[in-house]
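[09:14] KT: can someone run the structure on this one? pasting the chain below
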Amino acid sequence: MFNLGENQLLRVVKIADHGAYLADPEGGSRDERILLPIKQVPEGTKAGSEINVFIYKDSKDRLIATVNTPLIKKGETAVLKVKEVGKIGAFVDWGLEKDLLLPYREQTYRLHPGDECLVALYIDKSSRLCLTMNVYDYLDTDHNYRVGEEVEGRVYLISDNFGAFVAVDDEYSALIPKKELFGDVREGQKIHARIIEIRDDGKLTLSIRKKAYIQMDEDAEKVMKVIEAFDGVLPFNDKASPETIKREFNMSKNEFKRAVGRLYKERRIEITDKSIRRL
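[09:31] RB: done, structure tokens below
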């Protein structure tokens, strides 16, 4: 039996002009053989030798072995580069001769040649190796991160219901909850975030907001810039709707009220029934 998408130790049963035929040393049918092309056969190989190979399929959909190491194996995730985009999806370089298909249905956002994307490798219903950008089930949760630690991650999916799904260090499962999702965050983007919770299952909860006392200063300056853009008079006060605040400042209402409070205490603004004015 051959393990598609994995490395396997196989025994040479025959050497021909075009390569070495390999079989499972643990047993199997005499007809179950796989070719290691002649240019891949290590010098000195003979019948009975055992070779560690990676198993995939060639352009004719036949099982084939290689001694080269791919950039990704079955069940793993990796950041790979798109070589071209066709009618059925993107073709991605994974370090072997035949590029891998990333079908449109497995893309969480559209890709272009030269793009890098986080993907996982699996076997599809047609028993072919295939890539997916839906990596949630493939990400690891066994880590040594701590609450409060700052990390780098890649956004691979944005959900209207939950927030932004992130792969920390392109490997570990994390989420920026919807309530923490402010600013220009898009799929495929690399982000800098802070761990605010580690769930019992090991998944991380992130915030792209800084600690409150630091963020408040930045938010206050952002509010001040918007007031200046309105010629010094904001046409609403701190009782404005969350939708209005989100539209104008990309903040939550609580963040906006804290920033306005900071400016008021510093006597840089006055708050009226219908506006906020620069002093």
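[09:33] KT: thanks! The longest helix spans residues 212-229.
[09:34] RB: yep, looked fine to me
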